[in-house]
Amino acid sequence: GHHVSSQRMRSRRRELRTRHDITSFAPQFISIYESLTPSEEEKEKQKQLLQSLEKLIIKEWPNAQLHLYGSCANSFGASSCDIDVCLAISDGEIDKSKILLRLAEILQSDNLQDVQALTRARVPIVKLKDPATGISCDICINNILAVVNTKLLRNYSQIDHRLRQLVIIVKHWAKSRGVNDTYQGTLSSYAYVLMCIHFLQLRRPAILPCLQEMQPTYMVTVDGIECAFFDQVQKLEHFGSVNRESIAELLWAFFSYWAYHHDYANNVISVRTGGIISKQSKDWTRRIGNDRHLICIEDPFELSHDLGRVVDKFTIKILREEFERAAEIMQYDPNPSVRLFEPY
Ligand code: CTP
Ligand code: MG
Predict the structure, then answer these.
(1) Do 314 and 263 belong together in one domain?
(2) Which atom of ligand 1 is found nearest the CA of 147?
(3) Mutate to test the pocket of ligand 1, among 37, 42, 46, 71 (most ligand atoms within 8 A of CB)
């Protein structure tokens, strides 16, 4: 299970690794990262599926648009990931259930497989599978905020390649260790991406800027929320280059931040401000309904939204033990790139 033999590891404290030692593991992490990233061929197949869906949908709703969001569009997808699609329909008041059911009908008659309308889910969707490519796809309606936060994440990934490396490796770790499942009270991939961005904003010298604190070049209002940030990221491609830390050093520091340095009792991490803010200032100091705020991750646009709210008093322990396990492995294990991803 999630257990650590920390006793044994602590007795080896003397062999504390230096930055130099850690960096010698970088090539191993890079090759794990490379084995996880999707091929061009895979990306091409996803694009083709999107285009064929577009054709079908335009026939029925001429003013509709399809947007990709989530890991297939934010650059943090591992290979063979499913695609998340948002159908944007702007015709005033709409009945989502009705549209989803009609959409399912259309897709079914086009021979797509396993078509299913989940109209009662928290985010109602139609699921389908493309028999030609084997790619699965979820289609939701008018979830424009997700499309916009996907763009923010992608823009961050275009500033420094170490963000993509860090996220893909952290997601792989979280999936291997069973701590990437909101239904089980652990964190979503989206939450892990925000944790990684925040972490790189806080490195000194900083590896990432805070795009929402800069002069905005991209502005939209979605569901009454103003989303504004600097998106001319090609101008920032050297931003992080003063900082020479390797991916191995960053992983080590990331896990030790969440294991030993984060102040869970008082702090909220905030990509929006590029720093840490207090639970007090958000009024996230006590449990309200099901939101417990035991680990606080502010959504960059939906400011009342704590992505850590799914974590409860049992799963916070599991999470923190996993961060400690990972930090200790990075510090002491002779083979960190193997042990880190051992199935739990
Ligand atoms: N999202 C969101 N709010 C959440 C969770 C997710 O807005 N609380 C949106 C984000 O746009 C995110 C997308 O839904 O990019 C998909 O979320 P998730 O499945 O957690 O992330 P992926 O990047 O798709 O990761 P995975 O590869 O694990 O599917
Ligand atoms: Mg996803």
Answers:
(1) yes
(2) 11
(3) 71
E strand or H helix at 126, and its extent? strand 125-129
- Is the CA virtual torsion 73, 77, 83, 85 positive or negative? negative
Q: What is the pLDDT of residue 276?
A: 98
Distance from residue 67's CA to the centre of ligand 2 (Å)? 14
Phi, psi of 330 (to 5 degrees): -60, -30
Domain identity same for 16 and 28 = yes
Residues with beta carbon inside 6 Å of ligand 1? 69-71, 74, 76-77, 81, 84, 146, 149-150, 188-190, 307
Residue 227 backbone phi and psi in degrees, to 5: -115, 115
Q: Are residues 11 and 25 in the same domain?
A: yes
Q: Is 66 helix (H, G, I), strand (E, B) or coil?
A: strand
Interval between CA 189 and ligand 1 midpoint (Å): 6
Q: Which residue CA neighbors atom 28 of ligand 1 most closely?
A: 189
Clarify whether residues 20 and 115 are in a common domain. Answer: no
Out of 146, 178, 209, a domain closes at 146
pLDDT at residue 80 above 80?
Answer: no
Nearest-angstrom CA–CA distance, 234 and 230 = 11
In the structure, ligand 2 is a single-atom ion and the residues with CB under 5 Å from it are 70-71
Looking at the structure of the chain, the number of domains it has is 2
CATH number of the domain encompassing residue 30 = 1.10.1410.10
What distance in angstroms lies between residue 23's CA and the mean position of ligand 1's atoms? 31
pLDDT score at 93: 76
Q: How do beta strands 275-278 and 225-229 pair?
A: unpaired
Q: Is 251:327 a contact under the CB 8 Å cutoff?
A: no
- Kindly state whether residues 26 and 79 are assigned to the same domain: no
CA of 49 to the centre of ligand 2 (A): 16
Q: Which ligand is nearest to the CA of 191?
A: 1
ipTM > 0.95, yes or no: yes
pLDDT tens digits, 182-203? 999 999 999 999 999 999 999 9
Query: What is the pLDDT, as a whole number, of residue 6?
Result: 55
Q: Which domain does 195 fall in, by range?
A: 6-36+160-339
> pLDDT for 21-54, tens place per residue?
999 999 999 999 999 999 999 999 999 999 999 9
